[in-house]
Amino acid sequence: MQANSTQWLQALDGRTSTAQQLRLRHDALCSDLGGHSKLSYQQRALIDRVLFLEYHLQQEELKLATGADFDSGKWVQACNALSGLFSKLGLRKQMKDVPTLHEYVMACP
Question: Residue 35 has what DSSP assignment?
């Protein structure tokens, strides 16, 4: 059985705005890291955690904005965890492999 790190994401109801946003973020983060095919299992697993923590933090921030019960200590812990994951993944976009101009011209019929 091949492990699919995004099974939970695919299992979400794609009609919901939450699922749509999470999938867009997943695709954007994978793209920023050079494309899904270039990612290691470990990177894909960290991306899943990033998505979950971002969503969790947004829900907590919504609580704060609406005056609901908000735990600032847990929020800070989640922010620190998210920051650590981003540090491990890298904060800069990675270039995708593209052919040089010479390679491109030579490949044209």
Answer: -
pLDDT of residue 12: 77
- Give the pLDDT confidence of 54-92 residue by residue, as tens digits: 999 999 999 999 999 999 999 999 999 999 999 999 866
* 2 belongs to a structural domain: no
User: Is 1 contained in some domain?
Assistant: no
Domain total of the chain: 1
Which pTM value belongs to this model?
0.71
Residue 29 lies in a domain: yes
> Which position has the token pair 């050079």?
34
Q: Which domain holds residue 82?
A: 7-107
Higher pLDDT, residue 94 or 44: 44
32: Cβ contacts below 8 Å, ≥ 6 apart: 93, 94
